[in-house]
Amino acid sequence: MPKTPIYKVIxxxxxxxxxxxxxxxxxxxxxxFIEVEEFVFGEPGQIVVNPGEEKLKNEFSGVIRSxxxxxxxxxxxxxxxxxxxxxxxxxxxSNVRHFPMPGSxxxxxxx
Length: 111
Fold this sequence. Notes:
By secondary structure, the protein is mainly β. The protein has one domain: SH3 type barrels, CATH 2.30.30. It has 1 helix and 6 strands; from the N terminus they run βββαβββ. Strands 1, 2, 3, 4, 5 and 6 form a 6-stranded antiparallel beta sheet that branches. β2 (about 15-25) and β3 (about 35-40) form a beta hairpin. It is globular, with a radius of gyration of 17 Å.
């Protein structure tokens, strides 16, 4: 029987970088979004409590499906087994910039 794949999804959210695991990822019918379903958090009988993973677990409790804007996704990897989810502070000195959004134009110069 084929094993269900597990995906590690890394994305930006409110000046933080989220790393979580899910069993299903799709291109959304809503243009510009990725659908993430079936979140995977550590094993239920796990004794070691990871505060970062607990925060993720609480934030996504009751969430059936999450829609992530494509421009916020850093990376998606198919992995052999899940790991601990994390929330990391984004570095303020990053040189990465988002592309301009459709419909936005630079303001005309007044020389």
